[in-house]
Amino acid sequence: MHEMSLAEGIVQLLEAEAKKQSFTRVKQLWLSIGELAGVELEALKFSLDVVMRDSLANGATVHVEREPGQGWCMACSQPVLIHARYDACPKCGVFQVQVTGGDEMQVKELEVE
Ligand SMILES: [Zn+2]
């Protein structure tokens, strides 16, 4: 389950930020997860629950925003929305869509004290 290592990565990032900005506790965090990031949402929430328990983010509320998958259809020469990395173009049905966005996971915002 790679969500566990993603969750550990998030906590490491929070700890690094805590050192930089000298806060001691994370109360809420907002994550942005692209539709094409390959992240299983429920698995990630479960993993975060586990790894945050022993961290400065113990008990923090996690908010998740989903970014739509974005691509560029080479046949239509225009941007399209896709729901999976290897989706066909929703307009012309050709499998020549390059992913241009919505394939990342980011920590967008933190509420700390
Ligand atoms: Zn197309």
Automatic annotation (TrEMBL):
InterPro entries, sorted: Hydgase_Ni_incorp_HypA/HybF_CS (IPR020538), HypA/HybF (IPR000688)
Q: Does the keyword Zinc apply?
A: yes
Keyword Methyltransferase included in the entry's annotation: no
Q: Which residues form the signal peptide?
A: none
Q: Where does Ni(2+) bind?
A: 2
- Keywords of this protein's UniProt record, alphabetized? Metal-binding, Nickel, Zinc
Give residues annotated as binding Zn(2+).
73, 76, 89, 92
- Pfam families (UniProt xref): HypA
What this chain does, per the entry, is described as: Involved in the maturation of [NiFe] hydrogenases. Required for nickel insertion into the metal center of the hydrogenase.
| Membership in a protein family | Belongs to the HypA/HybF family.
Q: What is this protein called?
A: Hydrogenase maturation factor HypA
Source organism per entry reads: Leeia speluncae
